[in-house]
Amino acid sequence: MLTQPSYRSLRNPTVAIVGATGAVGAELIRCLEERDFPAAGLRLLASARSAGRAMTFRGAPVEVQALGEDSFAGVDLALFAADADTARTYAPLARAAGAVVIDNSSAFRMDPDCPLVVPEVNLESLTWSRGVVANPNCTAIILCVAVAPLQRRFGLRRLQVATYQAASGAGAPAMQELLDSTRAFLDGRPFEPQVFRHPYAFNVFSHNDAVDPLTGYNGEESKVMAETRRILGAANLPVGVTCVRVPVLRAHALAVTAEFDAPVPPSAVRECLEEAAGVRVIDDREANHFPMPVEAQGQGDVLAGRIRRDLGDPSGRSVAMFLAGDQLLKGAALNAVQIAEQMLVA
Ligand code: A2P
After folding, report:
1. Which residue, by CA, sits nearest to atom 1 of ligand 1?
2. CA–CA distance, 90 with 87 (Å, rounded to integer)
3. Is the pLDDT of residue 36 over 80?
4. What order do you get walking across the sheet with 132-134 strand by strand?
5. Model's pTM, two decimal places?
6. Distance CA 242, CA 220 (A)
């Protein structure tokens, strides 16, 4: 059951997007348009650098405003697509102004008062009576969309994941750095990285989040492990993750090994995924055609394939698979708008 809001009506909300000029912000605008979200109006907010910039919503120009203390007057629903510090500072102001917040940053994801929601997986946890709903980490969303239906059917014992993450997760400047550094590489020109520490063109490097000296896991890996457990409602699930950046613009890929409670034939896993909401199976062994970022890009579904027995586990309980999902859509903007849509119908 969904909890009734203690805020203004969300039937035809006035919507604000914080971080409208960023990579996720632009996709939020597009998702609201394409899904015909019944917004009574849209306010676009970003840093002072972008104030006055013209963007469009449903064919009409909307001027970007500098985010400030008074930005949320009259706003019913605030979609945050900026960094965690901005969310921590401004989400309370949005709440105080009577808006419900859906935040895409990591600021509130582990706050027990803020549900962490993937609608296909844990819609029952969606309550916005406390004002903030957290949109999970992009990799955790993509992983959980595919793994949750398997968990429900077969019972999950353990997850082992390696990621191949796109530039978009680090924002629009990182996507630009990938393009610019690739161009420079091809032209034989030197390129000084601005966003990442390492050369991005034709390279692969460990995720840019800081590494915890005690555990050896970087911030992204820690988020994926903790959030996956929370979304799946499995506080003690053993999850191991290695997160890596690859020179791809906007769709993440994941190699996943799932160990179930009992031996499960890969064909049963495939059938389960074929029936799962938000998943599209691409698993053509003859054509060697499996999930790829270029095919996940622009798609709302998580692509799943390469479903096979994990021969590293002689018990037969483990199945390996490969996933790909659009980091900016299901991994961020689309998931946030789907959460908002659930609020409208409640
Ligand atoms: P701006 O474009 O004015 O810098 P991305 O993740 O693609 O880098 O996007 C981040 C988004 O968050 C951008 O829209 C950016 O605005 C916005 N942003 C970053 N810092 C702030 C801030 N301090 N106040 C408001 N918006 C911010």
Report:
1. 47
2. 5
3. yes
4. 65-66, 41-46, 14-18, 77-80, 100-103, 132-134
5. 0.97
6. 9
> Which stretch of DSSP H or E encloses residue 255?
strand 251-260
**Is residue 2 a part of any domain in this protein?**
no
Mean pLDDT of 22-26: 98
Q: Cβ(114) to ligand 1 under 6 A? A: no
What residues does 63 pair with on adjacent strands? 54
pLDDT at 101 over 70: yes
- For residue 73, tell me if it sits in a domain: yes
Query: Per the structure block, which two tokens stand in for 25?
Result: 């912000």
| Residue 198 bears catalytic tag | no
The boundaries of the domain holding residue 187 are 140-327
- pLDDT attached to residue 7: 45
Marked catalytic residue, from 31, 138, 144, 243: 138
For the CA of 173, the closest atom of ligand 1 is: 8
Please indicate, yes or no, whether residues 183 and 42 belong to a single structural domain of this protein. Answer: no
User: In terms of domains, do 200 and 303 share one?
Assistant: yes
Cβ of 55 below 6 Å from ligand 1: no
- Give the mean pLDDT of the chain: 96
211 bridge partner residues = 218
- For 287-331, the pLDDT digits (tens) are 999 999 999 999 999 999 999 999 999 999 999 999 999 999 999
133: CB partners within 8 A, 6+ apart: 100, 101, 102, 103, 114, 115, 117, 126, 339
Predicted confidence at residue 128, as pLDDT, reads: 85
Residue that has been written with the tokens 């597009």 in this structure? 30
